Amino acid sequence: MIQYLHLxxxxxxxxxxxxxxxxxxxxxxxxxxxxxxxxMSPKRMLDCRYLLVLLFLALMPLVPNGNLxxxxxxxxxxxxxxxxxxxxxxxxxxxxxxxxxxxxxxIMTALTGTDIxxxxxxxxxxxxxxxxxxxxxASYVYNNISGYCYDxxxxxxxxxxxxxxxxxxxxxxxxxxxxxxxxNIQKALDESGVKCHYKATVPFNADIxxxxxxxxxxxxxDFRPEVKDLAIEIIQFLYLHEAPFTVNIYPFLSLYGNDYxxxxxxxxxxxxxxxxxxxxxxxxxxxxxxxxxxxxLSKAGFSDMEVIVGEVGWPTDGxxxxxxxxxxxxxxxxxxxxxxxxxxxxxxxxxxxxxxxxLDENAKSIEPGGFERHWGIFEFDGKPKYELDLTGLEVxxxxxxxxxxxxxxxxxxxLNTQATDMxxxxxxxxxxxxxxxxxxxxxxxxxxxxxxxxxxxxAFNMYYQVNNQHFWDCDxxxxxxxxxxxxxxxxxxxPVMIAYGSSMLLHGGDLLDxxxxxxxxxxxxxxxxx
Length: 530
Known about the structure:
It is a lipid-anchor; GPI-anchor. The chain has helices at residues 42-59, 83-92, 105-111, 127-132, 134-144, 175-190, 228-240, 251-256, 285-299, 324-340, 425-434, 452-466, 502-505, 507-529; strands at residues 69-73, 97-100, 117-122, 155-161, 199-201, 203-205, 209-210, 222-223, 245-248, 275-277, 280-282, 307-312, 353-355, 412-415, 480-483. With 530 residues, it is α/β, with parallel strands linked by helices. It folds into three domains: 63-373, Alpha-Beta Barrel (TIM Barrel); 412-498, Methane Monooxygenase Hydroxylase, Chain G, domain 1, CATH 1.20.58.1040; 500-530. The strands form four sheets. Strands 5-4-3-2-1-13-12-9-6 form a nine-stranded parallel sheet.
C-alpha cells in the first residue's frame, strides 16, 4: 500500500452549506363541518396506483445500495475472534459484501447460508504455482471455491488473484506470474461445472499509474511505463470476461509520505483549494486518484471498464495523523460520497468500495509504518472504535459490536519498581516489543505521552498478553511483575487479550504450557520421594 499521485499544493477553497426552510401553519378553527370522504372511481384508483409505482421507481436511485460498501477482513492477529461471532456482527451491521485476503475454512463455514457476497483472495506466494500449473489452479478452485456453490452455500462472486502484485517495492517479483495465474484461475472457474458464475480479478496498488511531475493532473494519468504493456494485457483479459479492475487507494499514505501534502485535501469535507484540471474540479485526493486511473484506462481503450476500489480506509493509531477523529471523518465522508451517486468528475455514479479494514491486526508487518496494525473500524476484540453509518444516510446509529467475547484474566504485567538493577531494562523493552505490538508508543501515537516507566510497563504487558499471560512471561530478570490493577491511562489502553483464538493460533505455546506444568508436577513429586 505505497502511494501515489503527484499533486500540486492546493490553496483554500470555499465550502457551501445547505439551509433548510421550515414552514409552519397556524392553528385553524377546530369547529369545522366534517368533510365527507370522497368516492373514487375504479379508473381513478388505477391511475393513482400507476402514479405510486412511477413515484417509487423514480425514488429508487436515491436509496443507497448496501451492496456498494464492503469490508476487508484480515486475519493477521495473534488472537482471533470466533468467525461465527464476527459474521453475526457483520449481519447485525448490515454488511453484505466481504473481501478475504486468503481462503479460510473457518470463515467460509461461518459465512455459509448468510448470502453475504464474498471476494476470496489468493496470496502472492501462490501465484508462481498457479501460473505454471493449470492443475494446481483447478485444484484450488475445486477445494476452496466451487464446493460452496449450492443453495444455502457461500455467495462467492470474485476471486482476487494476488494482492498488489505490481507494487514497486516488490521489484517485479510477481510480474511474470500474475497474468498466467489469472488465466489459469479463470479457466478453472469456467470449467468448474457448477451453476455459480465466478469472476477473477487482480487487486492493484494505485502506484500502477501516475501523472507526470510536469503535468500532475488526473487527465494526464497513465500506467507506469515499465508495466504498461503487461497491465493492458491483464485489463484486456478482465474486460473480455466482464470482470472489474480492482484498485487500492489510500489518501492517508499520500499524507504519511509527504509533509507538504495538504492535509485537508485528504478528506471529503476539507477546506483546501480545489485542484483544477481543465473543466474538472477536484476537492479531494480520492477522486483525483481514481480519475487518474479512469483516464489511464481510457487511453488504453477501456473507458467503460468497471472499477472496484478494493481497499480504502484510515488508521486510528501508529502515526501523528492516525487517530479516531481522522478515521471517522474520512470513512464517513467516503461512504457518503461513494453512495451519493455524484461519482468523480470523470465518471459519475455510485462507487463500489471495500473499507480497509474490519478489525485491527497486531501481527501485520510494520515495515511501512506502525499504523499498519490499526486500520480496523473495530478493535481487535470487536468493539467499535467510533460511530459509523454504513448506509450513507447520516443515521445517528452506532456500530453493533461482536457479542459474548471472552477475555483472559484481568491482570497485567508492569515494571517492577522495586527492582534494583535496571541495567538490562532497555534490552528487555526492545525484546518485548520485537515479539509483540508496541506501535501505540510511537511518535504521535496514543501512548506516546507515557513516562519511561509507563513505556516499560506497556512493552512488558503487550508481551505478556500476546503470550497468553504465562507467569514466566512477566519476569524479565526481575524487572517485571504481575498486577490486578489496570495501568491504563486516558487515551492509552493496556489491553487484555481475548481468550478464544489463542489456542487455535498459538497451539504450540499452549502445548508447551501444558507440558511444562506436567514437568512441574513430576518435579514436585520427585522432591517428595527424595
